[in-house]
User: Which sequence fits this backbone?
């Protein structure tokens, strides 16, 4: 018994190993980008459309629905059936083979098969719109991740410059302290500010690397890729009114058309269910050839008109109709919900553009004023007419201004891409077409 158990355990282990190897072989290997290649925004979008699982799954769903359309259409087309029957008897003289060939065609079933075909066609159309939506989502996600990496990269440069400035303030405070022109507290404050600047730089660098990973995920490539990108911004375009943007979105967004086709599919399913216990007429013509022992043959030809009817189906049709009506109501509510989501997306994106445009204009003024203020504070401190806290305050204001500017620049690009996505266009020029 012990040997039998060991043999069974070994067999199960080998079987599991084989299954694991087969599963591993089926897993798609992510694309790796060469380290010396610089990725532009169009490159990143192309990579996402080629590699993103959501896009590939949507493509596969279109194929699935296309197959279902073909199956539904086959109910309306002629079909050929071939059957054979061979009889092997104890007495050789009784041996024989019968060959039957028949052609079958649905004549009329009160629209049941036609509505099922309509349902399949509407679901395929919905799947195509879902593919368009997945493509649009992938494009926006890449743009958002791309601009976020640009933003965090710029912030690293800002924090590097801030650290260099803080270290210069340390040297300045130490020189004045050594000359007896400044207290020890100035040196300590400068050193503390420099240490804080170094921590900020470490955090900014970490955020940049995290943003790089997020962009790799959005592109569907190996997350370990050391992706390098080029600086760019989203083209500017006139911001439409809220009513214009919502009307455009309702007419363009693939999600809206997807749910609309799902409503039509649910309506076709209801009409088909309502004919569930009605008769179905079909016709067939067939021939039978019987080949017996000693080449004794016989043949026959028949034409049939078939009636299939279940007038009492124990409530099956009633249940199917109830289910179809519920599905139709659910899908209609999904259409209302999608309209609300689309309107909300447009409203949010439009407000984000307006807010970031105002923030960028203010940040430019903020940077100019803070730069001038820092230069003045440093000069006054060097001349001995200002205390060191004025320098550190001015440096902090400049850092905040530069951060605000970087966030506003790429936040505006992200907001523009967000509005393009929300109204369902692929380019800014398309908003007013």
Assistant:
């Amino acid at each position: 018994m012990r040997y039998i158990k060991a043999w069974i355990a070994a067999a199960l282990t080998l079987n599991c190993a084989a299954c694991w190897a087969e599963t591993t072989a089926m897993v798609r290997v992510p694309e790796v980008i060469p380290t010396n290649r610089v990725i532009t925004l169009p490159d990143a979008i192309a990579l996402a459309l080629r590699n993103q699982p959501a896009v590939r799954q949507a493509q596969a769903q279109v194929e699935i629905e296309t197959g279902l359309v073909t199956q539904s259409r086959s109910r309306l087309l002629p079909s050929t059936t071939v059957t054979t029957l061979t009889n092997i008897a104890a007495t050789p003289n009784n041996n024989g083979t019968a060959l039957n060939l028949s052609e079958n065609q649905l004549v009329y079933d009160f629209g049941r098969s036609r509505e099922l075909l309509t349902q399949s066609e509407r679901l395929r159309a919905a799947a195509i719109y879902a593919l368009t939506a997945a493509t649009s989502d992938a494009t926006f996600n890449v743009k958002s991740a791309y601009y976020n990496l640009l933003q965090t990269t710029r912030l690293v440069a800002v924090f590097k410059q801030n650290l260099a400035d803080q270290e210069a303030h340390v040297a300045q405070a130490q020189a004045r302290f050594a000359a007896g022109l400044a207290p020890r507290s100035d040196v300590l404050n400068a050193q503390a500010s420099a240490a804080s600047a170094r921590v900020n730089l470490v955090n900014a660098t970490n955020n940049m690397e995290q943003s790089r990973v997020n962009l790799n995920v959005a592109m569907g490539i190996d997350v370990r890729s050391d992706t390098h990108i080029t600086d760019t911004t989203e083209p500017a375009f006139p911001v439409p009114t809220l009513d214009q943007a919502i009307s455009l979105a309702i007419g363009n967004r693939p999600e809206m058309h997807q749910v609309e086709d799902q409503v039509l599919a649910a309506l076709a399913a209801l009409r088909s269910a309502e004919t569930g216990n009605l008769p179905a007429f079909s016709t067939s013509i067939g021939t039978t050839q019987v080949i017996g022992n000693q080449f004794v043959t016989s043949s026959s030809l028949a034409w049939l008109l078939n009636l299939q009817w279940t007038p009492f189906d124990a409530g099956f049709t009633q249940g199917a109709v109830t289910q179809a009506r519920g599905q139709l109501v659910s899908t209609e509510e999904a259409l209302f919900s999608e309209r609300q989501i689309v309107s909300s997306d447009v409203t949010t994106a439009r407000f984000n553009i307006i807010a970031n445009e105002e923030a960028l204009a203010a940040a430019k003024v903020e940077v100019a004023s803070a730069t001038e203020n820092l230069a003045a504070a440093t000069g006054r401190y060097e001349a001995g007419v200002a205390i060191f806290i004025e320098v550190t305050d001015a440096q902090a204001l400049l850092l905040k201004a530069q951060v605000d500017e970087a966030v506003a620049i790429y936040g505006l690009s992200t907001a523009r891409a967000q509005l393009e996505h929300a109204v369902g266009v692929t380019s800014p020029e398309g908003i007013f077409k």
Summary: The mean pLDDT is 89. Residues 5 and 11 are 10 Å apart (CA to CA).
